[in-house]
Amino acid sequence: MINIHAEGMPWMDLKKRAREADLILLAPQISYLEKKLKAEFGDKVSMIPAIDFATFNYQGMLHTVMKRDKERKAKRKAQIEQAFSYFDQLAVLAACQTCGQSL
């Protein structure tokens, strides 16, 4: 089951709601804002493909949402694994310092 809540709004209202959003899809007519919004909100910003927008291709838009969600989850998982790896290295270093061994 896929649980998606989508909401359209003027881009001026976006800043008020963007932090709570998992993904921000921009319509092609405001593509000039993509770089600015990515700088502020990171990788959660993505463009709706113009052909999907122009032809009301909801399956294409859903595909974009699913693809971006998968990419973001993979990136987040990699960040978490990297953080745990770092903490594991710190724990080994601390254990070696405690027992008087050098690495």
UniProtKB/TrEMBL annotation:
User: In the UniProt record, does the keyword Magnesium occur?
Assistant: no
PTS EIIB type-3 domain boundaries: 1-75
MF terms (GO), sorted A to Z: protein-N(PI)-phosphohistidine-sugar phosphotransferase activity
* Biological process according to GO: phosphoenolpyruvate-dependent sugar phosphotransferase system
Give the highest taxon in the source lineage.
Answer: Bacteria
Keyword vocabulary terms for this entry: Phosphoprotein, Phosphotransferase system, Sugar transport, Transferase, Transport
Q: What is the protein name stated in its UniProt record?
A: PTS EIIB type-3 domain-containing protein
- The species is Ileibacterium valens
